[in-house]
Amino acid sequence: MSDSSDSESAVPQVDRKVPNILVTGTPGTGKTTTSELIAQATGLSHVNVGDLVKEKQLHEGYLEEFDTHVLDEDKLIDELEDIMSEGGKIVDFHSCGIFPERWFDLVLVLRADTNVLYPRMENRNYNQRKITENIECEIMQVVLEEARECYAEEIVIELPSNDIDEMESNVERVRQWVDAYKANHA
After folding, report:
1. Each residue of 119-129: pLDDT tens digit?
2. Which UniProt keywords apply (predicted)?
3. In 10 A of CB 109, how many CB atoms?
4. Number of domains in the chain
5. Inside any domain, residue 59
6. Which of 9, 47, 164, 165 is the most buried (most CB within 10 A)?
7. What is the mean pLDDT of the chain?
8. Three-state SS for 122?
């Protein structure tokens, strides 16, 4: 089924002893909490991209109307390149299309019902424009579609993240997956 043009464009698989995982989703879906819980359960290291962007000034300024920094993608990728090659990282960010496909062995897209997501964003004091845009993104499955376009189908997993029971179930599933990955790459 594949021809030479397919094999030339294929991304080479990286054989790491410990996996890299991307946890993505609309703001408010529980990425950071889930990432921290996965790190505790697996021993992998959590990389919060939003915090890294602020700490290392990997941005081009601030957009007041959206209450967010304007990401400098090149600076971010340069900052993370060596870190990601080591393996054992859980990257937490609301977007996924900027990262090289070779970095990740599993991509988790967290989803939440809008009636759960809206109050979470209100509790964070997001302005109405930011809340509306993020709710529309969740309804339209923007992050899920981006993940499906950017990564191999078999590594993109959609997970519900409406409450603590779902988060704990997700963490347990990922822990089991990480254990199997490590056993297969020992």
Report:
1. 999 999 999 99
2. ATP-binding, Cytoplasm, Kinase, Nucleotide-binding, Nucleus, Ribosome biogenesis, rRNA processing, Transferase
3. 25
4. 1
5. yes
6. 47
7. 91
8. helix
CATH number where 93 lies: 3.40.50.300
Cα 20 from Cα 154, distance rounded (Å): 15
Residues 158, 76: Cα–Cα separation, whole Å: 25
Q: Flag whether 31 is marked binding.
A: yes
Domain around 93 = 18-30+44-163
- 33 is annotated as contributing to ligand binding: yes
In a domain, 151, yes or no: yes
Q: Is 32 assigned a ligand-binding role in the annotation?
A: yes
DSSP annotation of 95 = -
C-alpha to C-alpha distance for 52 and 58, rounded to whole angstroms: 8
Coil, strand or helix at 87: coil
Is 30 annotated in a binding site? The answer is yes
Task: Answer for the pair 31, 110: CB distance below 8 angstroms, yes or no.
Answer: yes
Question: What is this structure's pTM?
Answer: 0.89
